[in-house]
Specification:
2 helices
C-alpha cells in the first residue's frame, strides 16, 4: 500500500517549549513535517496560545526530544552522544 504524499497544509506542526510555565514570553522550537528541522521562536504567552491553536500543533514527546538532542550533539561534536 502506498501512502499519498501530504500537501504542505497537511504536514504535522511540532513544538517544543523551552521556557518556564510562568515566563512572560514563550521560547519554543517550531517544526513543520520533520521535528528535527526547527526554528527557534519567541512570542508573548497569549500570542503563543493563538499560534498553537492556529497551527494545530503537536507537542514533541520525550522520545522525539531525546533523539533530536542526541543528533545535535553528534553534529556539534562529531560522534553521536559524545561531547
Amino acid at each position: 500500500m502506498t501512502e499519498h504524499a501530504k500537501s504542505f497544509d497537511e504536514l504535522t506542526r511540532y513544538i517544543r517549549v523551552r521556557s518556564g510555565p510562568k515566563d512572560r514570553f514563550v521560547e519554543f522550537d517550531f517544526a513543520i513535517g520533520h521535528p528535527e528541522l526547527f526554528v527557534e521562536l519567541v512570542l508573548p504567552r497569549e500570542a503563543f496560545e493563538i499560534f498553537c491553536k492556529h497551527n494545530n500543533v503537536v507537542h514533541m514527546d520525550s522520545d522525539m526530544i531525546r533523539e533530536i538532542d542526541a543528533d545535535m550533539v553528534k553534529w556539534r561534536f562529531g560522534e553521536k552522544g559524545h561531547r
